[in-house]
Amino acid sequence: MQREVDVIVVGGGPVGENAADRARAAGLEVVLVERELVGGECSYWACIPSKTLLRSAAALRAVQRVGGAREAVTGGLDVPAVLARRDYWVSDWSDQGGADWLESIGIGLERGHGRLDGARRVVVERTGGGEIVYLARHAVVVATGSDPVVPPIAGLAEARPWTSREATSVTEPPARLAIIGGGVVAVEMATAYAGFGTEVMVLARSGLLGGMEPFAGEAVAAGLRGLGASVRLGVQPTLVERRESGEVVITLDDGGSITADEVLVATGRKPRTERLGLETIGLEPGGWVDVDDTMLVTGAAGNDDRPWLYAVGDLNHRALLTHQGKYQARAAGDLIAARALGRPEQTNPWGAHVATADHSAVPQVVFAEPEAVSVGLTVAAAERAGLHVRAADVAFSSVSGAGILADDYEGRARLVVDEERGTVVGATFVGQDVAELLQSATIAIVGEVPIDRLWHAVPAFPTMSEVWLRLLEALGRPAAKDASEPESEEAA
After folding, report:
1. 335 and 417 share a domain?
2. Is 118 annotated as a binding residue?
3. Is residue 40 annotated as involved in ligand binding?
4. pLDDT value at position 117?
5. Is residue 82 annotated as involved in ligand binding?
6. Angle 184-196/47-64 helices, nearest 10 degrees?
7. What angle separates helix 322-341 from helix 14-25, to the nearest 10 degrees?
8. CA 143, CA 311: separation in Å to the nearest integer?
9. Below-50 pLDDT ranges, the chain
């Protein structure tokens, strides 16, 4: 069977859905190919279930930090109720709602594994058997996401380790959980399971949250220990054995060992491109896919003469975050529609059809204990980029809104400022409920708002946003210029 449509989207997670939606909204005929569940990893095994598992214990801890409220709490966390709430949010792993939504907006759904077979050609191995070939009049968008990496540690694969999927879909938490890794998945799942009462052991060969400012990882390590978790840094497993009893014994490179009921591997991700058919269009299979700022795949056969192949989301390796993938998909979907319909292309920096913010303003929230959020560049990253920067650091103890939010509130905020341009290029907040501060920092960076102008963005009192005033005070107002003096030799 063979069928021709305007746009083919391979991958039905939130990123693929956004690309398909944008193209369809412009009037193009779109088919979406998905081999598992419409809604993808984020909806069923990542963002949604993980944050749902984390929320109940976080809310309980928040109540316990407020005098007058903590006295009313007489019981502990109801773990079965938490798991039931998670089941509700993942629709009991049914994607009927997603499929119905696609039908309601006129997007065709093809269930099966899609692979490229030359330019503008996608072969779908249907879930129910048989194949169908789709030909794209205008574009193919690949949004197949990524999978967890299981490192080559002796015995690890044979020990049947958990990945993020097993961790977020658990039906009964284990008594003991070992976690290999120190990134976002590792610390969030450590926080969630410690909240359940599981004995958690985190094994990280370096610090936690290495992509953030160092103080963020340090605070999260302290927070996990405060929840009763063990956090061991600077160690690596050398051998993993699943015993007949079901226990997992992990031997470490320092000569020690630990025993757990389950082991979660959270050491990174790899692209789902091994069976994508990249070799049929001149690209190497199995690796990350290179794109330009319009998400057009570089090096693909025919893409230079008549653009047709786009890659959005994890597999282009620009920012492995659902919200950034959706941002890329919106830009790509709109550009595909513009090119198909002969409309003007907006591919200038910050234009509607490019993902400029992927380079300078990627926001991220780690729902750990405490929350750690960041956007833009760290001090180290800014210096590596050749910027002359200055950092301002403030403790949240100086913010009235923080003290009202929780007794003895602990947290820290940092702004990274480009001295030459006088604008914010990075921000990090660590503490309870700091996630809601992130968008203001993102806007400041994307908008390149001058520090002088930020002084006039008055934070309401007494709220957490007052930290912005404290940060500006730490930076200090720039010295006033003498209007009688020339600013440069040219002015003179």
Report:
1. no
2. no
3. no
4. 97
5. no
6. 50
7. 30
8. 6
9. 488-492
**333 known member of a binding site:** no
Q: What is the pLDDT of residue 483?
A: 54
73 annotated as ligand-binding: no
- Same domain as 124, residue 101: yes
Strand partners of residue 257: 251
- Provide the β-strand partners of residue 3: 134
Last residue of a domain, one of 357, 384, 413: 357
| Cβ-contact 193, 173 below 8 angstroms | yes
Count of structural domains within the chain: 3
449 has binding-site annotation:
no
Residue 189 belongs to domain with CATH number = 3.50.50.60
**Residue 182 in marked binding region:** yes
Q: State phi, psi for 192 to the nearest 5 degrees.
A: -65, -50
Does the annotation flag 207 for ligand binding? no
Residue 292 known to bind ligand: no
367: CB partners within 8 A, 6+ apart: 50, 51, 54, 58, 188, 191, 435
> Which sign does the torsion angle of CA 128, 133, 137, 143 carry?
positive
For the entire predicted model, the pTM comes to 0.94
The reply to whether 122 falls in a domain is yes
Does residue 418 sit in the same domain as residue 469? yes
The CATH code of the domain that includes 409 is 3.30.390.30
Residue 363 lies in a domain: no
Q: Which burial class, exposed, middle or buried, applies to 357 when counting CB atoms under 10 A from its CB (0-12, 13-18, 19+)?
A: buried
pLDDT at position 305: 85
- Owning domain of residue 213: 157-267
Peptide bond between residue 14 and the one before it cis (omega within 30 degrees of 0): no
- Is residue 406 a known part of a binding site? no
Residue 35, token pair as written in the block: 């081999």
* Residue 147 in tokens: 């999978």
Q: Which residues contact 167 (CB under 8 A, 6 or more apart)?
A: 50, 185, 189, 192, 193, 264
Q: Would you say residue 87 lies in a domain?
A: no
**What's the CA gap between 109 and 66, in Å, rounded?**
49
Residue 146 assigned as binding residue = yes
Looking at the DSSP bridge assignments, the partners of residue 8 are 31, 140
